[in-house]
Amino acid sequence: MNKPLNDAPIEEDSEHAPILGTWRNVYILVAGALFVTIILFYLFTLYFA
Question: Which in 29, 36, 39, 40 has the greatest CB count within 10 A?
Fold first, then answer.
């Protein structure tokens, strides 16, 4: 007889992000901040070159 290794029911992700409601929104915020920082450094480079 083959018995499955884990008989525990699959649980939904009950952990919520500490801010912004979902982890997807946190990731979007971090990616947006990175994008803005890259653009600012590029503009500073052009201005002071």
Answer: 29
